[in-house]
Amino acid sequence: MDNEYSLGAASAAELGSLTSGRIKFRHLQCFLAVTQFGSVQRAADSLSITQPAVSKTIAELESILGVRLFERGRRGAEPTREGRLFAPHAAACVGALREGVDELSRHGVEHPGTVSLSVLPTVAPALLPPTLAAFRAQWPRVSVKVWTGSNGQLLERLKSADTDLVVGRLSEPEGMVGMTFEQLYREPLTVVVRNDHPLVHESNVTASLLARFPIVVPPFGTLIRQSAESVLTAFGAQASSSLIETLSVSLGRALALHNDAVWFVPSSVVEHDIALKLLTRLPMPFASADEPIGLILRHDRAKSPALDSLIDAIRDVGREREVVRIGMK
Question: HTH lysR-type domain location, by residue (predicted)?
Fold first, then answer.
């Protein structure tokens, strides 16, 4: 696809300088892939093309723009200052093109359009069912693509315009460049076991008692893991003791129900199982910090009626969750 792009409000002379090598979709696609993965080889793998093809395409783009976009070294390909400046505009072009295709599709019979979102796996089970029900009532023929993963992975998808929005956690300032974070609600941590677990009948859960069972926690480096380690320490257990680390809700649930595991998990993930008396909360030594969950968007996001409706539905469900959380205190 040889779609051409103009670089902002360029002068006639500047535009003329680009005519010898017009910017095409493949240039931006390769540039964003190398920016996302920090490696020409990994970018090539993600695009299902060869490494020399990616290198040649990047070289063409650098020649067209007259600047160096990456510094190549042992650690991979690092964007230069010019590369970092160009990245949000390249992502906006790719995002606008995809949105334009979707906009045209909405007027067809066979292809009604698609919106995409990326969400933390620990957030999706509680947030998405009511959100998507409300969205489908307004847009019954629009498809929704949903990706889950770690917060870092979700933000990378957003940066590279591979998703329209993220529902996740606020990252470090350098990781939020070009994006906005709108807090939806706060998510408390809870500790659960199956309803007939031996620990349910213990009046005082100690470190030695916990050590008899598998302990399932979020992966190291996540904010909710920090809360889990604080609770473990308050129980008297060593945070570095033998743990099962996973973000998978289905795995954590299976381990809790069938392997006698003690599961440290965001409260909303298990509220349905607690209501059905499949899981029960263990009393924690102290209240853990509530974690803010929010809506993350690019500053330059393309406007779309369907996407706006999806965002509104997410906001409505988020507000409802925050009202419930406050009412439980």
Answer: 23-80
